[in-house]
Amino acid sequence: MIELTTPISEEAIKALKVGDTVEISGYILCGRDAVLPKVLKMIEDGTVSDLGVDLHGQVIFHTAVSPAGVGPTSSNKLEIESSIAPLSAAGIKLHLGKGELHKETIKALDTYNAVYAVIPPVTALLGSKTSEERVVAFPELGMEALHLIKVDRYPAIIGAAHGRSIYEK
What we know:
The protein is α/β, with parallel strands linked by helices. It has helices spanning 10-15, 36-45, 78-89, 103-111, 123-128, and strands at residues 2-5, 21-30, 59-61, 94-97, 115-118, 130-137, 146-161, 164-165. β6 (130-137) and β7 (146-161) form a beta hairpin.
């Protein structure tokens, strides 16, 4: 088991391989299809620093945050998968979700020394490993707003790294 703590260094990402099991600790961002296009617009506009969160070395979990807890959504939804390359270029090092990504996305991850990890849909387990949460931006989106949560040893498997994917046949 490889322990990762946010912010994650370039060196830590370079050392990861497809199939590695990791545990993620620290503060991570949570966002999915409703909020990620808004974050991309802030990156394009040069206003992303208004979030008050440095994206460099950060993790983004493709999820909503609700009273029921957090659990991954499909990362290959158009609004989510199309955000992976620009968010990686902006400093995100690990994208956390579920499902197979397109080859172009896997290549983009490699270009920006970022990785994708899959996490099982185990809301109860993740709830016990989440100690803080707050809305960072777009509160009008409710549970789909951009959240920052503090996690302790979130389990995941590296699903795409350095141009390879666990979904390759």
